[in-house]
Amino acid sequence: MKTVIGHVVRCLTAAVALVVVLAGCASENSGGESSGGPGDGLGGTLTVFAAASLTEAFTTLGEQFEDAHPDVDVVFSFAGSSALAEQIRQGAPADVFASAAPKNMEQVVVSGDITGGPVTFARNRLEIAVPTGNPGSISGLADFGRPEPRIALCAEQVPCGAAADKAFATAGVTPQPDTREPDVKAVLTKVTLGEVDAALVYRTDIRAGGEKVTGIEFPESEKAINDYQIASVAAAPNPAAAAAFVDFTLTPQARSVFATAGFDAP
After folding, report:
1. Which of 93, 141, 158, 264 could disulfide-pair with 80, CB 3.0 to 4.6 Å?
2. Region 18-35: what's the mean pLDDT?
């Protein structure tokens, strides 16, 4: 009995050793690449270029995507959509582009830098942002045409600036901004620091500003709603993860994140 048991133990030990050796060989043959989440083959770094107004929502989505795909490392570059579109056209290594307006997405579509058709995943609208306490006594869009208040707006070439100009045209107001900022987060910072009396930012940014900022709705915002679009970049270093992330932004889980942030469904 001892001999038989000893023989079985020796055989089992040899079998285990063989499995370990084979596993080690497989690891070496993989070149150190990650195999992605369980059974999905996704791994590596996923670089997402996204409009600045998506910072909070996409940061949450990035964490959720990494939870679902443990071998993927999501890296975001948040900025004005026009600047990001230009970077992609110049060859910047990005996997996904999420724009705050179709106009900027169209630029990279025309240049051949997007694969497939972009899809609309959310909508956003403007609100007047004032520092808590409203020291400038701002009540509506007409106040942006007065010389007294200190005003901040987005640059005209970025989506929040273009939407603001459309709202002013609808209201028949000629704004007198003291500063035009490169993206909506820079505009919001001017408000939260009390450097301006009012600004036009997205409703989502009002929520992100917390107790330092108060939002004032205005009817002309209905004429300047922005559609947010997303697509994989044609030269994506990680095309599989890019396609998966684009699909993820269309799921009910992602829609819940967008709704909490203040976005409208498309």
Report:
1. 158
2. 34
Question: Contact 161/98 with Cβ under 8 angstroms?
Answer: no
Q: What is the pLDDT of residues 189-228, one digit of tens each?
A: 999 999 999 999 999 999 999 999 999 999 999 999 999 9
Q: What DSSP letter does each residue of the chain carry, written as one string? A: -HHHHHHHHHHHHHHHHHHHHHHHHHHHHTTT----STTT---EEEEEEEEGGGHHHHHHHHHHHHHHSTTEEEEEEEE-HHHHHHHHHTT---SEEEESSHHHHHHHHHTT-EEEEEEEEEEE-EEEEEETT-TT---SGGGGGSSSS-EEEE-TTSHHHHHHHHHHHHHT-----SEEESSHHHHHHHHHTTS-SEEEEEHHHHHHHGGGEEEE--GGGGG-PEEEEEEEETT-SSHHHHHHHHHHTTSHHHHHHHHHHTPBP-
Q: Pick the closest to residue 190 from 219, 145, 149 (CA basis).
A: 149
